[in-house]
Structure formats: structure tokens, C-alpha cells
Amino acid sequence: MPPKKIKTSTKTTNRKTKKPLIKRIRLGRLLLVLILLSSIVYGSYIVISEIYSWGSFKYAQYQEAHPSKPQKPPIPPQFTDKRFENYTNILFIGIDDKPVEGIAESGRYADALMLVSMDHTNGEIRFLSLPRTIKTSIDGRKDPEYLSFTYYYGGAPLTVNTVSQLLNIPITQYVALDRKSIAKFVDTIGGINLYVENNMDYEDPVSGTSVHLTKGYQHLTGDMSQQYLIFRNDDLGDIGRIQRQQKFAKALFEKMMSLETIPTLPTILDIWENNIDTNINILDISNLINLLDTLSTTEIKIKMLPGNLIPTGDWVPDNARVEQEINDMFPPVPEDAAEE
């Protein structure tokens, strides 16, 4: 009688062969993902470097045909403090074209103010909005006046120095632009996507103001952006407008980080050169790349100067909360470090 054949379990054999196979497949997929990620990161770095080199070259060509205006000098630091050594503080000033109410001569005033502070130690960027209806001491004026009047009295330098004294923060750089410049900038980058909180309808034939926006997710052009930014005819008035300005600024920075804005760099440089009052040299391409790299990896956080709205429409800073906010933005230097 022939010997019986010993049967082996096919299930056991399959399990033994499948486990190494599954491991190899998973390892292969992981390696493929890592290779793709490495390629994307390296490729992005090369593309960005080439693009900004191209942008620098294009602007150099533009300068040959259109000599640039003299570079405005930095504003001297209002005071020195070791606490602020690792920060770059820039004041963004939105300028209105309308006459200043209550002043005999017509002039432009600061319609929106936002401090941008960059921490060079960790790459963080902080935004702090300042209501234009803050009454404060202004050099050359006998009594406290609205912060918005500083641009009328002394341009960007006086506005910068006044904000520096108000916050006790050294500020040396500024960017001042009006609504037309903002509209040009938005149209150049192809508009921005933003959710409009409510229907906005307002007409003022005297000033020529016309606002008509529909509630909902919108693709804002330059003109629509102007309407969104100037509207203040709701229950919150100026405070609601500041909140919209903060939201707009965040959406604008996010759009700037998108690849579709890259071909517009030469036009952006042209707008910067001819339509903006600033003492920042945007042609320092290495600093621009570092800034964009930081913005692309940093969550945009925008806050408003703490305070209270009183019946007259003035915004009265809450000194205790302002001090806390400034300490959060610029942590005090330990005494032993300050003495070194």
C-alpha cells in the first residue's frame, strides 16, 4: 500500500508569502512618496529661484528705460531697546483721497493703519490694526487729534513716529498706498476670493461713493475690493470696516502665495515703484524671497489694538490690554540678557 501524502496547509503558506510581499509593497509606496515629495520640494526651490531671478532681470530692463525715483531713507529708530533687535516693524498706511473733515484745506489722511512685525528668530509675522479714530498726541499739534490726521500734517514719517510713540515700539519702514493703487494691485494678481458677510448697498453722490456687493462667496476685482474696504454703513461702523480690512489682508497674502501670481511680478514691481509711497527697496530680491518663504509657512494672525468704542465714535485704547498685546508680540528680554 503506497505511503500517504502529507498535505500542507495552503493558508499557512499563503500567509507566510503574503506578509513579506505586503511589507515590500508598503515600503515601495513609502519610498515612492518620499521621492515625489523630495522632487516637489527641490523643484519648487529651483522654480522659485529662477522666477525671482527672471523678475529681477525684467525689472532691470524696465529701469534702463525708466530711471527709478530716488530711494527714500529709513526713518531713524525712535529709541533703542534690546527687546526689539530681532524684529522688523513696518507700518502699512491706507490713504484716502477725500479732504480731511474739519480742516480748511483739502488733503489726504490715513484711512487705515496696520503694523506688521516680523520676528527674525522664528519667522513669525504679526499684524496689528489700529483704528483711525484714536485720539493721541501728535508732534506740532497743541491738542490730541485723530491718528488719521497725521498723514495730512506730515506724511508717512509723522504717521510712523506717532504710532511708534503710541505703542512704544520702534518703527523704521512704511508702505503708504491709496485705494486706486490697491485696485491696480488686486486686478494685476487676478482678483481675490472672499466671502462677503452681508449685502452692502450705499450711495453718496456728494463724495462719489458707490458700494453694491452681494452677500456670499465672491471673486473680488480691484473695484469690488475698494467697495468692500470702504463700506462702513452697518451697525459696527468703523470697527466692522477694520474687521473686513483684516479679512481682506489675509486673503490678499494667501493669493500672493499662489503660483498664478508669479507671472505678474514685473507689473507688481512697476506698481510698487510708481504708485506707492514707501522707503522699502523691493528690488532686494534675496529679502523678498525670504519674506515670501516665511509667509508661505506662517499662519496669518491679525489683531486689533484693544480698546473700547465710545458714543462719539472715538476708539479709546485699553492701556492694560494694549500692554499685554505688545508683550505677546515682543516678549520682554530677561534682565540678565539685557545687561549683556
From TrEMBL:
Record domain Cell envelope-related transcriptional attenuator: where: 110-257
Q: Which Pfam families match?
A: LytR_cpsA_psr
The similarity comment for this entry is: Belongs to the LytR/CpsA/Psr (LCP) family.
Protein name as annotated? Cell envelope-related transcriptional attenuator domain-containing protein
